[in-house]
Specification:
alpha+beta; Nitroreductase-like; single chain; oxidoreductase; NADH Oxidase; globular; two-stranded antiparallel sheet; binds 3-iodo-tyrosine; 4-stranded antiparallel sheet; 8 helices
């Protein structure tokens, strides 16, 4: 990307929503997003690659520090690669659950009843491994500083999760800890750090989810009027 100034162009894509429709649209979108749940068991039913591609392009519309777009989505469908990832993740997770994690952390996870077994890493048709580009590299191999990397990748990840839900698919944000093994398995350069595996597909038939609650508006927002 060049360092010359961007040319200002008209905001031709902005479409004002009439005030009367605005509330309805906000309500409808909340109604859609209220239905999103992480699931931990997936069907092996295939999903059209075009749907995933479109959701990735949606994630790529996220704002980012200095528009550096410091994300890379590695889309894994290959069964052997999925198996390799599962085995490596389970090895890390066994250590995590056997005491690698603090008592406090394990206590916080207890209500979710998670364990080191991660069959979903093989069951689901798609693993989208999300990497942060902690710095860029120019044509001469010089490092380019990136800004607000975590924030930017977090926003893009949220948009991806939203797009996937909107398309009618389930997802799980999975964070094996530590997860550097993903660089090696997926042959990614060292300026890229894995942040998450987003597991994507149809939920397994009859899957259950924990009966959790989300905070109320009063708990999450403060209005200063
Ligand atoms: N990575 C582990 C532990 C885990 C951590 C958090 I924070 C969660 O919200 C859920 C699980 C695992 O995937 O089991």
């Amino acid at each position: 990307m060049s360092t010359t100034d961007y040319k200002p162009i008209p905001l031709s894509q902005y479409q004002e929503i009439p005030a009367a429709e605005m509330q309805q649209r906000a309500d409808d979108f909340f109604g859609l997003m209220k239905k999103r749940r992480s699931v931990r068991a997936f069907s092996d039913r295939p999903v059209e690659r075009g749907v995933i591609e479109r959701c990735l392009l949606t994630a790529g519309r996220a704002p980012s520090g200095a528009n550096q777009q410091p994300w890379k989505f590695v889309v894994v469908t290959n069964p052997e690669l999925k198996r390799t990832i599962r085995l490596a993740a389970e090895e890390e997770e066994r250590e995590f659950y056997a005491g690698g994690a603090s008592e406090e952390w394990l206590d916080a996870l207890k209500p979710l009843a998670t364990d080191a077994e991660k069959p979903f890493l093989e069951q689901a048709p798609y693993l989208i491994v999300i990497f942060s580009e902690n710095y860029g590299v120019d044509h001469q191999g010089n490092k380019i500083k990136h800004y607000y990397v975590r924030d930017s990748v977090g926003i893009a990840t949220g948009m991806l999760i939203t797009a996937i839900h909107n398309a009618g698919l389930a997802s799980l944000t999975h964070t094996p800890s530590p997860m550097r093994f993903l660089n090696e398995i997926l042959d990614r350069p060292k300026n890229e750090t894995p942040t998450m595996i987003l597991v994507v597909g149809y939920p397994e038939e009859g899957v259950t989810v924990p009966d959790i609650e989300k905070k109320s508006l009063e708990e999450i927002a403060v209005f200063k009027t």
